[in-house]
Design brief:
With about 160 residues, the chain is of the alpha+beta class. The chain has one domain. Helix content is about 45%, strand content about 15%. It contains eight helices and four strands, in the order H-H-E-E-H-H-H-E-E-H-H-H. A two-stranded antiparallel sheet has the order 1-2. A two-stranded antiparallel ribbon has the order 3-4. Strand 1 and strand 2 form a beta hairpin. The two termini are about 25 Å apart.
Amino acid sequence: MTFTNILKAAAVASTLTLSTFVFAADIDMNADANDVAIKGYDTVAYFTKGKAVEGSSQFTATYKNAIYQFSSAAHRDLFKSNPEKYAPQYGGFCAFGVTMERKFDTDPQAFKIVDNKLYLNLNDKVQQRWLSDTSGFIDSANGLWGDIKTKTDAELEAE
């Protein structure tokens, strides 16, 4: 199976997953039907611990109408003091997907911090492709995000 076919299959799976989402969170945020971002993972932990850590519903903060969960009150407070620093780029959608003008869901384990910014990817296989030219893909995604952030993935797929 070629990488393009893998990505197409992932896009179909992502579209099916995203179609169940209720976008109470801002449309430029990747959140589940309960408005929880990053599948409940602690976004601050990526920076402080260098790994994906599950958050708790005991420690939460809201940003762009999405609910972020944290593993501690200290992480929640760090986030609240500067959410733009800790929130994932592209609203938590797959960084590589944005380069394809799509909004795919992500695997919280498939992450990388580049220039003190958090980037998430659909899965490990997609992340390996993204890592082959991270700076080029970031430049491309940065140029495209403004045009796609206010559209659903279904709208983008139809274009």
